# Entry
Amino acid sequence: MSNETFGEPIYTYTRRQAIEDGVLVDLSHIDIIRQHWKYPLACTAEVWAIVEVALRKPGQDVAGICHDISGMAKLAIQRAKQPDLINFEVFIAGHIHRLKLHCGAGDDASPVLTLMLPNQD
# Structure
């Protein structure tokens, strides 16, 4: 978008602000996420709530859940017609969850990944 046509933005909300506010949860510090993805990955607070519920069940851990999500996302990427927006399903602690993975530009225009529910943007 050209600033000449529309002028300066009135307000912007950055990914960093969303992470600081808890709207997004940064997963990039998790070892298994770094093994699966070369770009930073964050999920919405609602997706993280699914993970937190699953963690209360015996035999569940963050690494395993993130591995399952990453594996199913990668399978969906291979079949995708639109590789920047991937819809997929994953089995987490006995429940099937529909998720969406978006690849787009971050605050500095570098690629970032965002994991969300299908009805989120």
About this structure: Strands lie at 24-26, 41-44, 85-92, 95-105, 111-116.
